[in-house]
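Hey,

Quick one before I head out. I ran the complex with uracil overnight. Inputs first:
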Amino acid sequence: MTELDDDPAEELRALTRALRAHAEWQSITGAAGLEPASAELAQSRRGASDDAPNDDPVAQLESSPRRARPDERPSAERAASASDHPTHRGEPKSASRTAEVTSRTLPSPAVTDPVERQRQLDVIQVEVRACVACPLHSTRTQTVFSRGSGGSGLMFVGEGPGADEDEQGLPFVGKAGQLLDKMIEAMGFSCDEVYVANIVKCRPPNNRKPEPSEMAACLPFLERQMAVLNPEVIVALGATAVQGLLGTTEGITRLRGKWKLYKGKTALMPTFHPAYLLRTPSAKREVWTDLQAVLRQMGRSLPPKRA
Ligand code: URA
């Protein structure tokens, strides 16, 4: 029995949401016919999300052909910043740098036309709005999908919405979000250039950690967002994000700063969550080290220090 079976009013609300979602989906896609209901869709795609991450990032990254992004900087400029790289100067590699050093993969967005990309993301968002795949739907004010275009190839993934995000319908808009924005700007990106999303799209009550079953129900949406965007680098913010994306149970303190591969192909940097940094400002130094590694991986030079 689901809770829908118990409550006819909730069933009617869910049906209305699904009908509205379907109408929106049709108007966005121009499609006729039926899209599977999102709960079923999430269920049916769950099986596809189980790709074990490859433990050998170096081999994986080395074998990936390099593709230029549409917004890639001129190669001479890239080469200049690559030659600044410590290992290019012949210094010893640390374990955490290995993947970054060997990989110069620059994936293009899977969907290169920005209008088409946005259309595909809109389709996913409409399904998310109608989702009742886990109990979190019953306590949400609204779903929280993403912010930013992701045009730079950089994506940040957090845990799940808090009270501010639930109210505004956007990820990372509270205090932790303000710190994340500072981190993004310190890296030399505008907030709109990066894509920000979460493992779960509905707020867990009292800001508790999402349950594994809630993460599993929601992950297919994030996987589809990633499939459209094909980010060059993912920064996983905190233990839940790393666990959700990589399926590992290792703690964030051990994982942070070490390159991993998402689905065997996308460079993923685990680092501390900005909410942790608000409680432990001394850890900002480690996060900045991780973000600098991300910049090097992306062939970007560090932004000049502000006076
Ligand atoms: N923390 C998260 O992990 N995500 C948000 O969107 C906000 C706070």
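The beta strands are 154-158, 195-198, 233-237, 260-262, 266-271.

Talk tomorrow,
K.
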